[in-house]
Amino acid sequence: MKIQGRKCTLTVLKDNEFIPLPYSEETVRLTSKGYTLPSCIGRRNRLKCIETGKLIQGCFVTRLEYLCAKALFLLLLYNEQTFELYADRGFEKIIYKRVLIKGFELRGDNGDAFKLRFDLTGKDSYTESWPVVVPSLERERQRTYFFDGHSVTSDLKTLPLVYRFELTGGYGETSSYKIKLYFPLSDEHYPVKSKIEKLSLVLDLKDGVSLDLYDLEPEGEMVDINCADTVLCNQSFRITGPLVFNVRNQNEMLTIVL
Q1: H or E element: which one contains 213?
Q2: 251 burial class (0-12, 13-18, 19+ CB within 10 angstroms)?
Q3: Helix, strand, coil percent content, the chain, rounded in steps of 5
Q4: Nearest 10 degrees: CA dihedral of 116, 119, 122, 128?
Q5: What is the pLDDT of residues 172-182, one digit of tens each?
Q6: What distance in Å separates the CA atoms of residue 25 and residue 44, rounded to the nearest whole number?
Q7: What is the 3-state secondary structure (H, E, C) of 229-254?
Q8: Which of 246-254's residues contact partners 24+ apart within 8 Å by CB, and which partners?
Q9: How many whole angstroms separate alpha carbon 88 and alpha carbon 141?
């Protein structure tokens, strides 16, 4: 990514492995957490804030490529474990320590690149400057994954077109996942009122990378519209089963179950 003509990088460090990201947006910051003391009644005193610690806030948005896709889904698998984030913004180089994932959104528009957003948080987080021994972290350019809306299958049946989807997840005391599908309204082809046992999204056919979602329950019902023209609509589903990230090619066989 370039900012004001200067190359900037964002790199995840997990288990002593650096993972450069092809990111497009980044708003990660270190903020203070604490509480305020009330001012005296009837007097114009400023509120006093007592700082009790530091907190990571913000997010980053990245495209999907072969190496980073595997690493990012492994971060989702081990979402309770902290990692480090190396940010080179050109005017500063900073390391965010003890970063945690609060949630994510994987979004795909037909014919466009997949976009994965990570919402970040952290307990007792802090920052450091880059050590002199750590050089600039360059990313090796790879092929970007694009969403094909004609390759989505529902219960082994290929859907005519899904022109957009939004897969979201949140982490706290429990994990929860939802997906919203955008498609032309059709009771014949789209399971808008019934439970989906398995929904498959192809992330990249050449590399054999896919995502399988199990036991999808619709939220609400669709409205029947008597219209001769194509009606674009959307439907949200709660994912009550596992999310399975698959890599199946000649060089690698990998399965990550969330």
Answers
A1: strand 209-218
A2: exposed
A3: 5, 55, 40
A4: 60
A5: 888 999 999 99
A6: 41
A7: CCCEEEEEEEECCCEEEEEECCCCEE
A8: 246/208, 246/209, 246/210, 246/211, 246/212, 247/70, 247/207, 247/208, 247/209, 248/208, 248/210, 249/207, 249/208, 254/70
A9: 17
Place of tokens 């919402």: 119
Residue 4: pLDDT band by 50, 70, 90 thresholds? very low
Pairing of strands 209-218, 253-257: unpaired
What is the tens place of the pLDDT at every residue in 103-147? 999 999 999 999 999 999 987 888 998 877 777 777 788 899 999
Q: Which of 69, 250, 73 is nearest to 142 (CA)?
A: 69
Positive or negative CA dihedral for 141, 147, 109, 105?
negative
Q: If you search the block for the tokens 């694009």, which residue do you land on?
A: 146
- Residues in contact with 237: Cβ distance below 8 Å, sequence separation at least 6, in sequence order: 178, 179, 180, 181, 196, 199, 216, 217, 218, 219
CA pair distance 163, 230, nearest whole angstrom: 13
Which residues touch 195 (CB under 8 Å, ≥6 apart)? Answer: 215, 216, 217, 218
